[in-house]
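Hi all, long-time lurker, first post. I run a small reading group and we've been trying to get comfortable going from sequence to structure in the token notation. Rather than ask abstract questions, I figured I'd post a concrete chain and ask someone more experienced to write out its structure so we can walk through it together at our next meeting. Sequence below, copied exactly:
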Amino acid sequence: MVTTRQRRGEKEYTATLLRRSFREGGKVKKQTLANLSHLPDGLLELIRRYLRGERFVAGGELEIRRSLPAGHVSAALAMVRRLDLARLLDRSPSRERDLALALILQRVLEPGSKLATARLLGQSTLAAELGVEGADEDDLYAALDWLGERQERIEARLARARLVEGELVFYDLSSSYFEGRTCPLAALGYSRDGRRGTPQIVYGLMTDPAGKPIAVEVFSGNTQDHQTVPAALERLKARFGLGQVVLVADRGMVTRANIDALAAEGVDWITALKAPQLKRLAKAGTLQPSLFDELNLAEITSEEFPGERLIVCRNPLVATERTRKREELLAATEAELAPIRERVKRGGLIDAGEIGLAVGPAAKRFRMKKHFDLEIADGHFAYRRKSEQIAHEAALDGIYVLRTSLPAERLGSAEIVRAYKDLQHVERAFRVLKGPELQIRPIHHRLESRVRAHVFCCMLALYLERHLREAWAELTFQDEHPPHRPDPVAQARRSAAAQAKARTKLTTAGQSAHSFRGLLAELALQTRNTVALPGTDATFDKLSEPSVLQARALELAGK
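-- Answer (accepted) --
Happy to help. Here is the structure in token form:
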């Protein structure tokens, strides 16, 4: 096709000709086959493309055979590649590694049982992307076993990537309830799920300062908090090969025996005093509530804790809340006791034993019995508050004491407080593990090895989820730039931008702000469509165009 232009006077004439070239008598000649000038521009363009070799079919004859959610899979896989998660699991490619990745990714995208996961893999592009089409629940159980066997090696690689000498390492404990009674790890214990009487397992999670998980250890359900610290210590020193670290742990874990063990291994620590220890300091006069008339942070020493630094803090907001709650509980206890006193006055209760039986449950219901003097005799019942005792307890409201083996030149008092408060990252990780995001519970596995592997798989899913959540901060309600707090004891406040997001439900770019799970749902609306050509068995895949939000989320994930 040739387009020619000729000017005659002030007018320009355009002609589009279909021509062919041929050789005759050793000379190249051209022949005009048709004049196409009368055709519209769109049709002329189609003819040009056809002559270049492109082939077209009627649009109405195309058939979409299948449409699968793809955007959320693409984003998660982009982050997997950024983190080099496949090589973290194993250096050599294998089907087991691909299936283990599928387990981790599917738990982030939509958690479920192994049977549900096997079905869900084919309901998005995940199975095709990882090459695990047709995998059933038996394949996934085998992959879980494969993953569990490599836990120590994977955790060691995570530690090398995330921890450095002398850095803070955070450790906390939680539990999850168990369905069934045949697993050796399932036992009755203190339930953090509020499921008293239900078997459970206990697990300790270790993270870096940013809250990214490093390792997890599973214990039987009746394990006490402090009994888990030796396992954490062994992991830090022996398996991770760290010469100098600082363990930050909750107050229930660090006993005198554990402190001695930490000192013997050269591991420094940061924790807090328990309530009875704090009360002993106050009774001995070492801790004076008057310290906080003008300050909210002070450092003291005590002979009861030789060689340790004690940082005393007071949070006025916590103090106000505890005072309010105590008053409500005291009033509620009096409301329980008042009808009993009236019954005694009316003669409905006369025997002292019967009065005591009625008073006992009422006084204990809100755990305020310690704050009441109770007088019980035949035909007599009276009660009054222990005002002096209540005042002494109220003086300690909002006060907590941190203890550490670190010298002041290594970490100042304010930094110690900030470090201990950063345990909130581990607590937040537990909420994600137990919540709809990852659904670690209830646990149905029967074999001890599979229970451990299940918890480890959830930990790796948490590792991926944390990085995705961090990358998508600008698209969610998360605070992108939390303000620095000069006063570590003061209440944490969100930045003005984060408050604006919460108020307007819009990001700083003016798009709709989402929750993490809501953003995954938005990404899943980008689909991969399998299109069939008419009259043939040939098909091709076509990815739908991403929206502005989807494109930005994919870009932030590393796509």
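A couple of things your group might point at:
The two ends are 41 Å apart (CA to CA).
The mean pLDDT is 89.
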